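sanity check this fold:
=====
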Amino acid sequence: MSIEETVPPAPETPGPTPGKSEAEAKPGTDWWAEAKGVFWLVLAVLGFHSFLAKPFYIPSESMMPTLIKGDRLVVTKYPYGWSYVSPSITRIPGAPGEWLGRLTGQDYLSIPFIPGRLFGHLPERGDIVIAKPPTQYTDYIKRVIGLPGDRIELRNGVVILNGVPVKRDFLAPAMIPIDANIPCDSDDVYRLRVTGPDGREYCQMPRVRETLPNGVSYDTIDLGPGGRTDDYPALTIPAGHVFLMGDNRDQSADSRVASVEGGLGGPVPVENLGGRAEFITFSLDGTSSFVNPISWFTAMRGGRAGTSLRPEKAAQPSE
């Protein structure tokens, strides 16, 4: 009697479940994981902007000739330490902010004034800084002229620090090309429009180089006597405050101008300094359009990218 070997049948390959499409068989999107990823990305960007550096846009002509409207630059947050204005978002705008603000007795929900700075340092005279006025939400960009304890005064446009007039040297005019962002058409400057040798129109603005007691030099625009901010009564800057001014001296709402007129309303608390301007990344002439990507490149101003905003500093004069 022979013994027959039985070979087990090969396992069947499982096919698709009847009634299920191919799309239904694939795993679905994990929306919770996607939301967490976006959350951590946003948190990382806000953290970088709040504690290290952030971009800044120049919206006015108050810092000419150093900065002109349309410049984009980098502001570092850490040079003076961190304060209540350091976070990228210090106020919730719109209807939600208004509603939440009413619950806390504010116009909008915002971080209230908190004195002091973490790892705080005073700026140097001549630094370009971002400041948030105590009574406003808008960021201002100005230059530090006076430090705590300084006695400051202006007479006929001349800055007098601790009884000594700041050194001024009259230079050749600043030739600023006229474009959509710098139209040079206000009553104060329209007379300064000229045509250059290249056939292009320029705003020919009177330029004066100031040198502060610490040896820092920078250029300013002085349109001449008679400006409403050419004179400022003598004032001793309080402890924990700095005196800020724009380089375009006759067209800047700064510490010389009352807050009700859009200025800084006197010396600014150091807690309200949001950072130091470092360098220009690029500059736009005002002709770019969101719906026309080509204009993003044609609107670029040449020669401004990479310009340092740290003022020149010579050896301090011997006493």
Summary: The first strand starts at residue 53 and ends at 57. The two ends are 126 Å apart (CA to CA).
